[in-house]
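User: Here's a structure from my thesis project, written as structure tokens. My advisor, Dr. K., wants to see whether a designed sequence matches the one we expressed. Can you design one independently, without my sequence as a hint?
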């Protein structure tokens, strides 16, 4: 009877160790895919932003003097815009501030509607064009650069969690194999 119980215990341990090994392999593969996603998004965000050659104004420049701009952008003064975090700061605290100064703070949709209603008004047409270009650039920086950068960061965290869990699981499997050898 004791021999049968020991045999069942060995079978269960073998099954659990095999399952543990499969879980470790699965977590490493999933972690690798998450890490690839992180690397892919960060590389693409960096390369796309680098090709645009956008630079923050230099420290102490009049462009950073505004209390709506300087406190948020001084840390990046003179640098090239290359990351999602920088893109968000530039979009929210440089472009948005300047856009709020066009047409009394109205949006492109509002000014465009007025421009269509008054087709001979050159000022409205110019303001609509400026707002369209600014809001488009702002949207691209937020939607493409910042959003994808954030998704990449989440993938990085997920990869680290997968690798850490795989490491813990590998230790448990090794302990299980040790226990199996002592039976």
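Assistant: Designed independently from the structure alone:
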């Amino acid at each position: 009877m004791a021999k049968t119980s020991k045999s069942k215990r060995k079978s269960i341990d073998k099954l659990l160790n095999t399952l543990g090994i499969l879980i470790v392999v699965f977590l490493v593969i999933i972690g690798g895919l998450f890490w690839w996603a992180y690397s892919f998004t960060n590389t693409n965000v960096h390369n796309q932003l680098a090709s645009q050659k956008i630079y923050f104004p230099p420290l102490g420049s009049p462009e950073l003097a505004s209390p709506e701009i300087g406190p948020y952008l001084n840390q990046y003064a003179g640098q090239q815009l290359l990351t999602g975090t920088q893109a968000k700061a530039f979009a929210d605290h440089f472009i948005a501030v300047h856009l709020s100064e066009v047409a009394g703070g109205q949006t492109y949709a509002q000014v465009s509607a007025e421009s269509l209603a008054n087709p001979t008004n050159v000022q409205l047409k110019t303001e609509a064009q400026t707002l369209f270009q600014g809001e488009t650039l702002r949207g691209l920086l937020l939607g493409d650069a910042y959003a994808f950068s954030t998704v990449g960061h989440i993938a990085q965290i997920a990869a680290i969690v997968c690798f850490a869990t795989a490491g813990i699981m590998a230790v448990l499997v090794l302990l299980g194999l040790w226990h199996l050898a002592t039976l």
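When you compare it with your expressed construct, this may help: The chain has one domain: 20-182.
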